[in-house]
C-alpha cells in the first residue's frame, strides 16, 4: 500500500512536470509567432522606404529634366538645380537594405532576368521605339492582369523562377524604365515642336524682309 502511494506521487510529479513543460513550450511558441509577425512588418516597412526613396529620386530627376526647367531664366534654373541637388543628396543619405533569401535556382533566375533587362536598356539610344516595345512585352510578362500587348513568354518563365520579392522588384524596375522612356519621348517631341516653331518664325521673318 505504501509502495503504491509512493508510485502514485511519483507519477503525479512527472505529470505536473510534463504539463508545465508543455505550457512553457506553448508560451514560447506563441511569443515566436508574434515576433514573426513583427519581423515581417519590419521587412514590409523597410521595403516601403526603399520604394519611396526610388520614387523621390525619380521625381527630383524628372523635375531637373522637365520642359518647364528649360523655359525659365538661367539664374532661376541654377537656383532650382541647387535645391534639387540638395534634396537628392539628402535622399541618398537614407540607406535601407532588405536582403532577399534565395535558393540557387532563384539566384540564377534573377541573374538571367536582370541580364535581359540590361540588354534592352543598352539599346535605348539606338532605337528608343523598339526598346519601349520590348520593355512592354517584358512588363506584360510580370503582370497578373490580361496584358494589352504581346507577352515575352521566355522572360515570364524566368521571372516565375525568381523569389516573390524579386518578382516585385523586377516589375517596379520595368515600370520606372517605361516612365523614363515616356518622359524622354515627350521631351524629344516638345524639343522638336519648339525647333519647328522657331524655324517657322525665322522663315516668316525672312520672308517679310524680302516683301
From TrEMBL:
It comes from the Eukaryota. The keyword Transmembrane does not apply. GO terms for molecular function: adenyl-nucleotide exchange factor activity; heat shock protein binding; identical protein binding; protein-folding chaperone binding; tau protein binding; transmembrane transporter binding; ubiquitin protein ligase binding. The keyword Transmembrane helix does not apply. InterPro entries: BAG2, BAG_domain. Residues 109-189 form the BAG domain. PROSITE patterns: BAG. Keywords: Acetylation, Chaperone, Coiled coil, Phosphoprotein. One of its GO terms (biological process) is positive regulation of protein processing. GO terms for cellular component: axon; dendritic microtubule; protein folding chaperone complex. Residues 25-59 form a coiled coil. Binds to the ATPase domain of HSP/HSC70 chaperones. May interact with NWD1. Interacts with HSPA1A (via NBD), HSPA1B (via NBD) and HSPA8. May interact with DNJC9; the interaction seems to be histone-dependent. Co-chaperone for HSP70 and HSC70 chaperone proteins. Acts as a nucleotide-exchange factor (NEF) promoting the release of ADP from the HSP70 and HSC70 proteins thereby triggering client/substrate protein release. This is BAG family molecular chaperone regulator 2. It comes from Jaculus jaculus. The gene is Bag2.
Amino acid at each position: 500500500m505504501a509502495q503504491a502511494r509512493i508510485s502514485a506521487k511519483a507519477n503525479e510529479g512527472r505529470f505536473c512536470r510534463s504539463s508545465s513543460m508543455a505550457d512553457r513550450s506553448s508560451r514560447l511558441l506563441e511569443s515566436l509567432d508574434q515576433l514573426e509577425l513583427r519581423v515581417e512588418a519590419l521587412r514590409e516597412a523597410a521595403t516601403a522606404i526603399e520604394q519611396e526613396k526610388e520614387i523621390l529620386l525619380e521625381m527630383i530627376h524628372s523635375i531637373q529634366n522637365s520642359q518647364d526647367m528649360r523655359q525659365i531664366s538661367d539664374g532661376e534654373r541654377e537656383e532650382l538645380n541647387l535645391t534639387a541637388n540638395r534634396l537628392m543628396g539628402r535622399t541618398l543619405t537614407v540607406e535601407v537594405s532588405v536582403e532577399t533569401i534565395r535558393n540557387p535556382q532563384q539566384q540564377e533566375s534573377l541573374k538571367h532576368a536582370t541580364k535581359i533587362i540590361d540588354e534592352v536598356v543598352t539599346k535605348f539610344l539606338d532605337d528608343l521605339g523598339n526598346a519601349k516595345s520590348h520593355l512592354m512585352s517584358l512588363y506584360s510578362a510580370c503582370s497578373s492582369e490580361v496584358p494589352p500587348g504581346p507577352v515575352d513568354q521566355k522572360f515570364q518563365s524566368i521571372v516565375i523562377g525568381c523569389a516573390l520579392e524579386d518578382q516585385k522588384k523586377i516589375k517596379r524596375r520595368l515600370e520606372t524604365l517605361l516612365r523614363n522612356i515616356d518622359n524622354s519621348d515627350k521631351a524629344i517631341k516638345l524639343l522638336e515642336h519648339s525647333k519647328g516653331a522657331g524655324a517657322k518664325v525665322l522663315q516668316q521673318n525672312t520672308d517679310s524682309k524680302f516683301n
